[in-house]
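Q: What structure does this chain adopt?
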Amino acid sequence: MDVKTKLSKLGIELETGSFEAKLRAIAKHAEELADELDAIDAESLEKESTNTEEV
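A:
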């Protein structure tokens, strides 16, 4: 059974405008989240390097 058929059985239609809009929203927020997580990682690395230099 293909993915389209499985989704249809669950009541999810891929050819709807709302599904496309939902995917766009997910993509937008996923990119923003990834950027924020990268910033947190960079900040943590900066703090670690500062602490190492003080020792």
